[in-house]
Amino acid sequence: MATYKEFHQYSIEQPDAFWTEQAQLIDWKEPFTQVCDFSRPPFAKWFVGGKTNLCHNAIDRHAAKRPNDNALIFVSTETDEEKIYSFAELQTEVERMAAIYKSLGVKKGDRVLIYMPMIPQAAFAMFAAARIGAIHSVVFGGFASGSLATRIDDAKPALIVSSDAGMRGGKAVPYKHLLDEAIEIAEHKPNHVLMVDRGLDKGFNKVAGRDVDYATLREQHLNARVECEWLESSEPSYILYTSGTTGKPKGVQRDTGGYAVALASSLKHIYCGGEGETFFSTSDIGWVVGHSYIIYGPLIAGMATIMYEGTPLRPDPGIWWQIVEKYKVSVMFSAPTAARVLKKQDPAYMHKYDLSTLKHVFMAGEPLDQPTHEWFQNELGRPVIDNYWQTETGWPMLAALHGVEKTPIKFGSPSFPVYGYNLKIFREDGSECGANEKGIAAVIPPLPPGCLSTVWGQDDRFVSTYFTLFKEPLVYSSYDWAIKDDDGYFTILGRTDDVINVAGHRLGTREIEEAIQNHAAIAEVAVVGVEDKLKGQVPMAFAVVKDATRVATPELVKALEKEVFSTVDGILGAIGRPARVHFVTGLPKTRSGKMLRRSLQALAEGRDPGDLTTIEDPSTLEQIRNALAS
Ligand code: AMP
Predict the structure, then answer these.
(1) Architecture of domain 4-480
(2) Where exactly are the structural domains of the chain?
(3) DSSP helix/strand/coil, 279
């Protein structure tokens, strides 16, 4: 048995041998002829010439052997529904959905945009696309029409699959009017919108000729058989948009074969889940964790996966543990914000249930602070494993590999670089940091299988965004500060750019600024991420109004702040709403006009604003202080 260090070293020094072994974990219709083609750095192609299919690996191959075993377990504490699909039943539903796609003219390579709540049909929609070689792009249901329109114009979907409404905290959250608005704003128009009618929003608008009803079409394709389309390993499986420093999100493009292998191997070596067990990830299909560890990963490994619609607190704070007991969950995956929410509840809710099947709990998406990590692991009595990764990578870059070696957990650390990632910490001049020295976490390419192959439609942006940190060496920049201790344990210290992380969700401050700027009263605005005990960070806005009379009294200030909130809600969704909008008459800038964001952030967090020798107008700082004190 290798140590994690030997395992990692083997993957870096002999990648062809290493990944050829890992590739045996999935089915190939045709074998690959080359493990990695890195002839055009930084672009890497994995398992060249191999033909496979994600849907086959996640569903069909298990349905053939274990048709009646649990595959998809849907639990909604919003509508009080529970439904279990066996592998055979899941395959049937996916084939029906795939037949509907074909009847609507969707072909291999076409994009299918999915804007849906956490319901089984959303999983069918993703698998059906993968089955026929269409490229899905799931947009988080919490995004509003502006965000959705940007994504429609970038992905240019032939078909959009949606639903009348989601549910949150017992209330229906209508989706369809947001989708109609987005299609109205977007230049690209989809041929069809396939609507899953949950009966939650009775009067939703139906556009004749464009909108079609899922239930009606499903009836017409009950006995449909749709074979899997065998894709060359590098052909795209999906696009997932993520925020960056510009206002325009990037479409992370994922391949097919490399992704399937990476997920299969991660289930074996990191998550330690196998056939017949159950995986419970509390994420959402709109995020990368949902793609990798609700939809594809567990099923590829032959596990059942839980799709949960609801909050951690309803009907009571024991709900997740009740699910663990009922479905004998062996691996759980959640986010630090959720742990911080649970920490505030009575621990009796956790101890009331039989959690004996649970091997360990994984946490990712944002820094897991030491006290929360310690509390959670002690309370649960089993390893809580912090793992660090990004939408771009699709699976962990830093984690403990308990499938290889049971290394001790250090609270506050996501442990070590994962096999396949030649990840190091660099100084700003491109040299490597020593132990206990803060630097930028970066990966020497090629990126391992499963990571983004490019930015959708923008190869140049892929190179310029991720691979231009230094002239030498060529590295993939994570845009995260990191530090490594004497024992080789890493800690992530936050972003190097203007991206903030709210409850594990990445938001670009530029996107929020652009949304706020849509309010007619706003002349200029700066948004920064401010530390928050529960959510890690929250956005805070400092805005200059065009007409001072709009903020002449405290009542007017409150009213304008409310208006700004609803502007953001309408464009980005409530997810992008700042915690506060402070109105000022000027923003702190350097003499060359650069916004002093770090100073703004420091002031908002009650810290020293730092070096201000280049500030244009020092009185702006006083205003910020006053606004924060008000
Ligand atoms: P996203 O692509 O939305 O998943 O966001 C990725 C970013 O979240 C990373 O670049 C980090 O800044 C942060 N992140 C994700 N996982 C962790 C973790 N385990 N510890 C610290 N930060 C994390």
Answers:
(1) 3-Layer(aba) Sandwich (3.40)
(2) 4-480, 503-629
(3) strand
**Cβ contacts of residue 406 below 8 Å, gap of 6+?**
none
Per-position DSSP letters for 406-435, written without gaps between them: -PPP-TT---EEPTT-EEEEE-TTSPBP-T
pLDDT tens profile 148-191? 999 999 999 999 999 999 999 899 999 999 999 999 999 999 99
Residues with Cβ within 8 Å of residue 512, at least 6 apart in sequence:
527, 539, 541, 568, 572, 576, 578
Q: Name the strand (E) or helix (H) holding 540.
A: strand 536-545
Q: pLDDT digits over 427-453, tens only?
A: 999 999 999 999 999 999 999 999 999
Look up residue 398 and give its two tokens. Answer: 């830093």
Q: Which residues contact 19 (CB under 8 A, 6 or more apart)?
A: 11, 35, 36, 46, 47, 261, 420, 448, 449
Q: Residue 449 gets which letter from DSSP? A: T
Q: Which DSSP letter does residue 497 get?
A: S
Helices (H) and strands (E) in the chain — how many of each? Answer: 21, 32
The pLDDT tens digits for 496-553 are 888 898 888 888 888 899 899 999 999 889 999 999 999 999 999 999 998 989 999 9
Cis peptide before 42 (omega within 30 of 0): yes
Which two structure tokens, joined as six digits, stand for 78?
């919003």
Residue closest to 420 by CA, chosen among 1, 42, 18: 18
Structure tokens at 172: 């229906």
Pocket flag, ligand 1, residue 391 (CB < 6 Å) = yes
Q: How far is the CA of 1 from the centre of ligand 1 (A)?
A: 31
CB–CB of 180/205 below 8 Å?
A: yes
Q: Can you tell me the mean pLDDT for 337-352?
A: 92
Q: How far is the CA of 211 from the centre of ligand 1 (A)?
A: 37
Confidence tier at 1 by pLDDT (50, 70, 90): low
CB 599 within 8 A of CB 612: yes
Positive or negative, the Cα torsion across 51, 54, 57, 59? negative
* Burial of 232 per CB tally in 10 Å (0-12, 13-18, 19+): middle
**Domain boundaries 503-629, CATH class:** alpha beta
What CA–CA distance (Å, rounded) separates 214 from 429? Answer: 56
User: CA 76, 78, 79, 85: dihedral to nearest 10 degrees?
Assistant: -10
What's the CA-to-centroid distance between 398 and ligand 1, angstroms?
Answer: 11
Q: Is any ligand 1 atom within 6 A of the Cβ of residue 288?
A: yes
Identify which of 19, 17, 12 has the alpha carbon closest to the alpha carbon of residue 46. Answer: 19
Beta strand 159-163 with 111-115 is parallel
The H-or-E segment that residue 93 falls in is: helix 87-103
Residue nearest ligand 1's atom 3 by CA: 506
Nearest CA to ligand 1 atom 4: 390
